[in-house]
Design goal:
Blueprint: E1 9-14, E2 17-22, H1 33-48, E3 54-59, E4 63-65, H2 70-78, H3 83-99, E5 104-108, E6 111-113, H4 115-122, E7 125-129, E8 133-135, H5 149-157, H6 159-168, E9 172-173, H7 174-179, E10 185-187, H8 192-204, H9 208-241, H10 244-254
Parallel strand pairs: 2-3, 3-5, 4-6, 5-7, 6-8, 7-10
Antiparallel strand pairs: 1-2, 8-9
Helix pairs in contact: 1-3, 2-10, 3-9, 5-6
Length: 264
C-alpha cells in the first residue's frame, strides 16, 4: 500500500504496525478540508494494506486533534452546499473505522475535542496521556454534534452523561474519561508510548484472524446504530451550519471573545 499521496497524515511502519499521525501541529491538528478528505479514505487503505495488522492513530505536537478548523467552518457558512461533501465524508470516516478489520488504537498525546474526540472514540482502544482533555464542544461553536458523537457517547457512558456533555460541550480530563469508561486508559505522559507499544505488541502476537473478526462482530451493533442515527444528525448539523449562532461563534473565536448566542 502506497501512502505517498497523503498531505496531512504521516505514516511509519514498525514491524506489522502502521503508525498514522495527523500532521497540522501548528493548528493543534485541527481538521481542515484536506485532512477531512484524507481521513475519509485512510482507513479503507489501512484495511486493504497487506503489510499492516494493527494501526495506531496519534497527533503531531501537543494535541491529538482540536476538531474542525475555523477557517474551513467559515467556508462552509459562505458556501452551504459544500457541507454536502463534508457530510458524505463524515459518514465515510465513521463507517471506514467500523469496517476496518485491523484493530485501530488511538494514542491521545494531547487534547481530543470535537471531531478529534469522535474519531478517537470510534477507534477500538484508546490510550491517553493523563494531561490530555477530551470533549465534544460542537455546541460551543453553534454546531450540532452530528459527526458521530450522538452515536458513540451514549454507548460508552450512558444517555444521561452523554447528553450532559454533548449539550454543554464541557471537556473532561483523561483520568475522568477513563474512570467513567469513555476511554480505556489514562497514563502518565512519559509512559504513553511504551504502554501503547506494549498493547500493540500483544495484538501482533495474537491470533490475527480471531482478533480481527472479534472486532468486526462487536462493531455490528455500532454500525446498525450509526446507520440509524447519522443521516439525521448530519442533517441537523447542516441546518446549524447556516444558523446565526454558528456564525457568531466563528466570529467570536476569531476575535478572541465569548460568543453571544441569540437562539437563531
Amino acid at each position: 500500500m502506497d501512502y505517498h499521496g497523503y498531505k496531512t497524515l504521516l505514516f511509519e511502519r514498525r514491524a506489522r504496525a502502521l503508525h498514522i499521525t495527523m500532521n497540522r501541529p501548528d493548528k493543534l491538528n485541527a481538521v481542515d478540508e484536506q485532512m477531512h478528505a484524507e481521513l475519509a479514505r485512510v482507513f479503507v487503505d489501512v484495511s486493504n494494506d497487506a503489510e499492516c495488522d494493527v494501526a495506531v492513530l496519534s497527533g503531531a505536537g501537543r494535541a491529538f486533534s482540536s476538531g474542525g478548523d475555523i477557517d474551513w467552518m467559515q467556508k462552509m457558512i459562505d458556501v452551504p452546499a459544500s457541507f454536502e461533501k463534508t457530510a458524505r465524508e463524515g459518514k465515510q470516516i465513521i463507517f471506514s473505522l467500523l469496517d476496518c478489520e485491523k484493530p485501530v488504537v488511538a494514542k491521545l498525546n494531547g487534547h481530543a475535542t470535537g471531531l478529534g474526540a469522535t474519531i478517537a472514540l470510534f477507534c477500538d482502544v484508546v490510550f491517553a496521556s493523563e494531561g490530555a482533555k477530551i470533549g465534544d464542544p460542537h455546541v460551543s461553536v453553534g454546531f450540532v454534534a452530528g459527526d458521530g458523537g450522538a452515536v458513540i457517547w451514549p454507548q460508552l457512558i450512558g444517555y444521561a452523561r452523554a447528553k450532559e456533555f454533548l449539550m454543554t460541550g464541557d471537556l473532561m480530563t483523561a483520568s475522568e474519561a477513563a474512570r467513567i469508561g469513555l476511554i480505556n486508559h489514562a497514563v502518565p505522559a512519559a509512559e504513553l508510548d511504551e504502554r501503547v507499544d506494549q498493547f500493540v505488541g500483544r495484538l501482533l502476537a495474537g491470533a490475527t484472524k480471531s482478533i480481527r473478526w472479534s472486532k468486526m462482530s462487536v462493531n455490528i451493533g455500532l454500525k446498525q446504530l450509526a446507520h440509524s442515527i447519522m443521516d439525521a444528525s448530519l442533517a441537523y448539523e447542516a441546518l446549524s451550519n447556516i444558523s446565526s449562532d454558528h456564525q457568531e461563534a466563528v466570529n467570536a473565536f476569531r476575535e478572541k471573545r465569548s460568543p453571544v448566542f441569540t437562539g437563531r
